[in-house]
Amino acid sequence: MDRRSMRRRVFDLLERDVPGDRPADVLHFALIAVILVSIVVAVLGTVASLGLRDGWAFAVIEHACLAVFVAEYAVRLWVAPEHPLRRGMPAWQARLAYAVTPFAIIDLLAIMPLAGSLFAGYELHGLLVLRLLRFLKLARYSSGFNALFLAIKRERYALFSCLLILVSGVLTAATLMYLVERDVQPEQFGSIPAAMWWAITTLTTVGYGDVVPVTTLGRVIGGITMVTGLVMLALPIAIIASSFSEVIAQHNFVVTFSMVSRLAPFTDLDAKALGALLPVLHSRSFDRGHMVVRRGEKTGHLYVVLEGYVEVEHPDGVERLGPGGVFGVASGAALEHMVVRAATKAKVLVIEENELHALMAKHPVVVARLSGMVFPKAGEG
Amino acid sequence: MDRRSMRRRVFDLLERDVPGDRPADVLHFALIAVILVSIVVAVLGTVASLGLRDGWAFAVIEHACLAVFVAEYAVRLWVAPEHPLRRGMPAWQARLAYAVTPFAIIDLLAIMPLAGSLFAGYELHGLLVLRLLRFLKLARYSSGFNALFLAIKRERYALFSCLLILVSGVLTAATLMYLVERDVQPEQFGSIPAAMWWAITTLTTVGYGDVVPVTTLGRVIGGITMVTGLVMLALPIAIIASSFSEVIAQHNFVVTFSMVSRLAPFTDLDAKALGALLPVLHSRSFDRGHMVVRRGEKTGHLYVVLEGYVEVEHPDGVERLGPGGVFGVASGAALEHMVVRAATKAKVLVIEENELHALMAKHPVVVARLSGMVFPKAGEG
Amino acid sequence: MDRRSMRRRVFDLLERDVPGDRPADVLHFALIAVILVSIVVAVLGTVASLGLRDGWAFAVIEHACLAVFVAEYAVRLWVAPEHPLRRGMPAWQARLAYAVTPFAIIDLLAIMPLAGSLFAGYELHGLLVLRLLRFLKLARYSSGFNALFLAIKRERYALFSCLLILVSGVLTAATLMYLVERDVQPEQFGSIPAAMWWAITTLTTVGYGDVVPVTTLGRVIGGITMVTGLVMLALPIAIIASSFSEVIAQHNFVVTFSMVSRLAPFTDLDAKALGALLPVLHSRSFDRGHMVVRRGEKTGHLYVVLEGYVEVEHPDGVERLGPGGVFGVASGAALEHMVVRAATKAKVLVIEENELHALMAKHPVVVARLSGMVFPKAGEG
Amino acid sequence: MDRRSMRRRVFDLLERDVPGDRPADVLHFALIAVILVSIVVAVLGTVASLGLRDGWAFAVIEHACLAVFVAEYAVRLWVAPEHPLRRGMPAWQARLAYAVTPFAIIDLLAIMPLAGSLFAGYELHGLLVLRLLRFLKLARYSSGFNALFLAIKRERYALFSCLLILVSGVLTAATLMYLVERDVQPEQFGSIPAAMWWAITTLTTVGYGDVVPVTTLGRVIGGITMVTGLVMLALPIAIIASSFSEVIAQHNFVVTFSMVSRLAPFTDLDAKALGALLPVLHSRSFDRGHMVVRRGEKTGHLYVVLEGYVEVEHPDGVERLGPGGVFGVASGAALEHMVVRAATKAKVLVIEENELHALMAKHPVVVARLSGMVFPKAGEG
Question: In whole angstroms, what is the distance from residue D36 CA to residue D135 CA?
């Protein structure tokens, strides 16, 4: 194997986008295990009574983990030019482009404590947080984090509104309490920022009890604040709950460039067209036997099979489509007489009707190619 | 530019109803910034240890903010006669009518501390709350506040019922605890109002812990109160959550008189007809490419384009409608063979079928005019 | 007016079932006001520092309220034979039947403290709870209480399951904590019932903090308990929330015997047939112009107008139905070509398809009569 | 009655699967009562001040309950070969297979304390937890536990994601607080595990208040943690709530082997085919008169009546199906012109379209037999 194809193989191993790649699975679980061990050691290392910091085992594990992380960072940097989005670039530019992605920065920060301990001869405590940042490395592997991230992203405006409402609630409650209890408890309510500590504690219904109103008027204001807090509780629950459970229910997964660039319809697209395509690709997982398109479902969506097989039942027979297969509308006609079923566990990419329309305006070539591959052809379905 | 048209221009700047008006956007963000600075200064000014109150910078910022608010209040008063609802009135009457609106009162209260410090020579602490009221000035600009306000308004009866249930829960728990723990902890449970402090703390699950039952019977009652508290939590969450997330999902925005009075179908309506129309206009935002009316959607609603463009696809072709364009039912026939799509980011006003019916009875002229402008014509669609 | 018709009039006043009965409205708000005053006085009377109990005003208000309640109880007892369900009975039996209803018992308990203070010469403190029971008298007037009551009743099995799960969670957490912290904090965790106080406080997320684990193992168990508590929170919220918001959304109101027995189709039904009918009558309120039955809505329900007017639009014209009007299915055919709209604010009783079927089996006479009155006739619609 | 048929009868009594079996009902409520008594005694026995442990009544009840549990365990072991899934096995193997089921292990653990007190002469305290495990025995009888269990099982991946997010939130908050408050409160925040106690308390909004930040920066971090906690609250509520209320709404019950093996279509299936069938059988309860299949409902499901009767209305008349009756699709054609109604309170097993498809591939014999019995026949419906 030459150097180029080896780099390609290593990239595939690290990305784990090819389904059923055993070595990639093993590598991933090994990396997850190293991260977990590293975190447990970092947490327990702060317990003075255990005296772990003085033992040699602690130092060995610490340094071994660091070595793995440094190696991982270096390898990821090396294979960066294999990323489909950066294929046209010179190698150094591709690596620089990778180095400024959030994941790469997290990886870099997670190995910073090494530098501290090597060069300064001791470990700065501030670097400890960086060590815990390794937990964020797990986000790369966890569908749960991705679901939460997608849910929060979808509802970011609504959540920002919530925050604004919460801040105004905190400010109002704190000001009133400051005016009422300032003279009675100067220690606790002597300034508005001090009273804000009480207000946030109460509005979120945490209620430590380290600061409580003692006057009658203060308790009336406190009671109103608590009831308002129930409304504050309701707002994010309303927003996050529906969004998160929807994301979870659709078994959305994160669509990456390397997944898409491997599919027949997209292999030779340039980075720009791929960049326009990726945000409009919605992901859906289906278990074996489940319906992708139900009988009589009116839809103008376009579907591309990413993994597994689907069976398209139409009046003229049954067609089996594998990875890269395209089905859906041909030219305005809906799928009305078709049933599509997952023949195996399948992952499917969906371009919704609205976005197909918008994509048509910006990248007619992509849509034209997809339309040319679609099954069934116009006039057939 | 004569004085009249200048007043009109200033009114438009302050209302920011004309889409794409850059100077109006700048003015708005500047006013928001001044409000935020003013609040931060007011909050930090109460922290004695920072000693901000004695510095000259503090006084300068304080007075600059006040000057801006006074100027804003004066200008808003000056341009009040430009408001479409008050166009027929003499100028002094229009200004008086504006001065008693909630927003104008908040603005006035927010500049009251000025009077205190100028004439009395010192600042009354009670006026501090008024300064914090400036936060409410932000409500004018925030869609989050508006969504919460709309959600609470829609469900006000249900929320009032919740409050009644909560009050009865507090009363019952407090009375029982008063009877049980009165003699053991006379300080904490010596009267029903005192016990109510414990009850509200427990029912909202805040649980400060400053007052807790100590007898066995008291703890049994406390446990039952806590479990009841879970139900109390569920009620507002149930009500607010569905209402708030619906308001957020529809991207409702606040429809103002000046928006509506600018649209072709409504330019020459008198204040009374406008006043009847405004509450039945529902607002919807659509991103580019999104469907306003889906294929086969049975609806008797009437739609007026407020901003942006929509494309109405019907059997005879495609029509593009801009601001002021009306589409929907002509005379009882539904939109069954039409598809309406947002050609650009668009804001649309909707009169729902029910309310169209009610409006017909009260203001036949308005409905007749809308019906005359509707697309497609009866017999066409 | 003779005595019989006067008793009838008083009954109608107290029941307030006839829409638009002004004197009945006034009487109701007066009774609500007396209850509220009585509760406020009872609550404030326990605050020793206010010294209300020694003032003559306190005694006067107390006794006036009691007098009103005694009078109300007596009058309700007197008019009891007017209740449609008890019309066939002799007067004494009707009054006895009324006296054992929950509302009558609450009313009786609410006037019990009178007896205590009159005969024993002093007030027993245990009777104070009875005085607070007057708050329950409000339930008669509040739609919020009714909605909560209906929601809880609908989901009583699910809520009981929740309670069982909560109890098992409390037991498990308390036992584990008892074993772990028994020796370290014998005061707090010296027995399982003592540890249960901590467990219920934690599982409901109230968290007073008067009892907290201090050992490492105890804190691990505590952490697991808290996370479990989040699930405990979710269960009743899930159940109550959907049920309560549904009840609220349908504007359900309580259907009473006197309402139903006043309607044309039911005037001469005997108590037994009425008793079978009442539980299957669902209530719905509609604002003016709102749709009772939408175009194309497939339904086999039967509708009876209780209050206000509805307009039934069918292919042959429009029919206006008032109180007592019946519409819906005639004989198996659905309402497919009809639209029914509330012409005024209207209250409608609905018998759902399922229950109509069940009622047919048990009381064919009632269904036959309704079918005879239904609009449109079979063959028409 | 010979020994074999007696064993069969005892098995039926204990399983309580035959509807309307009075003695089985009595036995079940008796066993539930013994469990409850046993738990109450175990809980109260730990209260030293009651001195129950020294009284003879305590010992008598304790030993009587133990005797019942031992007897129950022995009898269940004896009748184990009657279980349909284990019918082919020799008796000893069937009993061993039963002994390793979760329920059998719980039963065994619940009688372990007996051994401790008999042989060691005193009771080990660690065995107390085992005694409380008897509460888990109730799970066998409670539909609430089953609903929660089903809901959690359905959403186990989503809940695991939640847990991961919670753990990362706890770790992040604890690390930051450790860095900030370590020197000020070495007792409370001296190590990350110590700070994690504060973090979990805050993120779950329990808020004991035994550990609180005191520095300004610590309180800012605390405030952010609390707000994040609201999101943490929302996640499990979102997941559990929808899943649990759905399970509750469908009145799902647990389908057991003995239920299924009694039905005509399944009587002579071998254990393996039964084992494949059971997981795809969904359960639904219907009250009398309720619709099992609505008019026009498009479905490819297959239904088997388990208990009660249903009426299938089709164009050629009405058919009444009892236990073992099969209805649904014959060969691809949907139920479009049928209405199925519960003639009595009925329990129905449903095989959903997706799973019927999957079952067909693995066990064609089972599907062929069901298709042969289905009503209406292909060509009829």
Answer: 8
In a domain, C90, yes or no: yes
Residues B209 and B277 in one domain: no
Instruction: Determine, yes or no, domain membership for A79.
Output: yes
* A137 in the same domain as A17: yes
* pLDDT value of residue B88: 73
Using alpha carbons, select from A120, C43, A159, D10 the residue that is nearest to residue B172. Answer: C43
Report the CATH number that the domain containing residue D210 is assigned in CATH: 1.10.287.70
Write out C148-204 in H/E/C secondary structure: HHHHHHHCHHHHHHHHHHHHHHHHHHHHHHHHHHCCCCHHHHCCHHHHHHHHHHHHC
Q: What residues of chain C lie within 8 A of the CB of A205, using their CB?
A: 205
The pLDDT score that the predictor gives to residue A334 is: 46
**Mutation site for A-interface testing, chosen from D155, D163, D166, D192 by largest number of A Cβ within 10 Å:** D192
C-alpha distances out from residue A378 to A328, A333, B339, C154, Å: 10, 8, 21, 52
Q: Looking at the structure, do residues A243 and A322 belong to the same domain, yes or no?
A: no
Binding-face residues of A in 184-243 toward C, CB within 8 A = 205-209
In whole angstroms, what is the distance from residue D134 CA to residue D157 CA?
29
Judgement on whether residues B18 and B134 belong to the same structural domain of the protein: yes
Q: Classify the complex by whether its ipTM is higher than 0.85, answering yes or no.
A: no
B 31-50 residues inside an 8 A Cβ radius of A: 39, 42-44, 46-48
The answer to whether residue B147 is domain-embedded is no
Check CB contact under 8 Å for C175 and D236.
no
pLDDT for the residue numbered C113: 67
Statement to judge: residues D272 and D230 lie in one domain: no
Q: DSSP letter for C377, please.
A: P
Domain containing D241 equals 156-249
Tell whether C248 lies on the interface with B, counting CB pairs under 8 A. Answer: yes
Name subunits touching B (3+ CB pairs < 8 A).
A, C, D
Whether C150 maps to a domain, the answer reads no
Q: Percentages helix, strand, coil for chain D, rounded to the nearest 5?
A: 60, 10, 25
Sheet holding A317-321, edge to edge: A291-293, A339-342, A310-314, A317-321
- Residues of chain B where predicted confidence (pLDDT) is lower than 50: 330-335, 378-381
Chosen domain end from C141, C172, C205? C141
Q: Which run of H or of E encompasses D220?
A: helix D216-249
Which H or E run includes B320?
Answer: strand B317-321
Q: Give the number of domains in chain C.
A: 3
Cβ–Cβ of B171/C291 closer than 8 Å? no
Nearest residue in chain C measured CA to CA from B159? C144
Write out chain B residues lying below 8 Å of D209, CB-based.
Answer: 208-209
C101 and C122 in a single domain? The answer is yes
Residue A83 has pLDDT above 90, yes or no: no
Does C208 contact A209 at a Cβ distance shorter than 8 Å? yes
Position with higher pLDDT, D46 vs C241: D46
CB–CB of B374/B266 below 8 Å?
no
- Of the three residues B249, B281, B296, the one that is the final residue of a domain is B249
Chains that touch D (3 or more CB pairs under 8 A): A, B, C
By CB atoms closer than 10 A (0-12, 13-18, 19+), residue B58 is middle
- Same domain membership, residue A116 and residue A236: no
Name the closest residue on chain C to residue B199, using Cα atoms: C206
Let me know if C262 is exposed, middle or buried by CB neighbors in 10 A (0-12, 13-18, 19+): middle
Which position has the token pair 């409009």? A280
Q: Which residues of C touch A209 (CB under 8 A)?
A: 208-209
Residues of A in contact with D164 (CB under 8 A): 138, 142, 144-145
**Residue C202, pLDDT score:** 93
Task: Tell me the CATH number at D342.
Answer: 2.60.120.10
Nearest to D234 among A163, A201, A236 (CB): A236
For residues C265 and C361, state if they share a domain. Answer: yes
